[in-house]
């Protein structure tokens, strides 16, 4: 979901075999996507993310970001079912820009704490708008949050603690070409609209 320090090379490059525990999660996600209603589907997908976030097998995707930064590691992308799974490792003080997403998803906290700030887009006319804070909370290990698409889901994540944090992200996009394609960075858009 996030810009900043995409320095990590995907461990699912063609020369690597996808681990069985990733394939199991992939199959669970594919099954969940067959649900008869979006409400049921979302509940099932949340359970998939929750289970994966507490599965220590996924810890191999934890990276070592630079001080104050975060790294994004693509775990799996599924061009057929159109979803991607990635892990973010957050150094103390790491923070995303204010952004929205180009598709929906779910964020599970594996370890540490992540601050979530949500914003509302207020249209001012003539293509101008303002971004107004409207909610904030701290997500702890085991929590899974919805990441809504479009203006409904404008947010910023950060690690406000002195310890590393790790999060697992499921997005309903094939991000194999560009992991940052999920993001719609409002700080950049706002600048470009002025
Ligand atoms: Fe995000």
TrEMBL record:
Descriptive protein name: Cysteine dioxygenase family protein
Molecular-function GO terms, alphabetical: dioxygenase activity
Keyword check for Metal-binding: yes
Family: Belongs to the cysteine dioxygenase family.
Pfam families on file: CDO_I
Superkingdom in the source lineage: Bacteria
Record's keyword terms, sorted: Dioxygenase, Iron, Metal-binding, Oxidoreductase
Organism annotation: Hyphococcus lacteus
């Amino acid at each position: 979901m996030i810009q900043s320090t995409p320095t990590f090379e995907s461990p699912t490059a063609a020369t690597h075999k996808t681990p069985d525990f990733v394939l199991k999660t992939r199959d669970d996600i594919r099954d969940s996507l067959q649900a008869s209603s979006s409400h049921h589907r979302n509940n099932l997908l949340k359970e998939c993310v929750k289970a994966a976030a507490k599965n220590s097998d996924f810890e191999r995707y934890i990276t070592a970001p630079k001080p104050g930064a975060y790294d994004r590691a693509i775990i799996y992308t599924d061009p057929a079912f159109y979803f991607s799974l990635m892990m973010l490792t957050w150094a103390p003080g790491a923070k995303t820009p204010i952004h929205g997403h180009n598709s929906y998803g779910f964020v599970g906290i594996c370890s540490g704490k992540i601050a979530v700030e949500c914003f509302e887009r207020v249209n001012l006319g003539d293509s101008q708008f303002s971004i107004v804070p409207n909610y904030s909370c701290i997500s702890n290990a085991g929590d899974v949050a919805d990441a809504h698409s479009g203006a409904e889901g404008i947010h910023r994540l950060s690690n406000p603690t002195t310890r590393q944090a790790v999060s697992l992200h499921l997005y309903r996009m094939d991000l194999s070409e560009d992991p940052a394609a999920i993001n719609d960075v409002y700080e950049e858009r706002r600048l470009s609209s002025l």
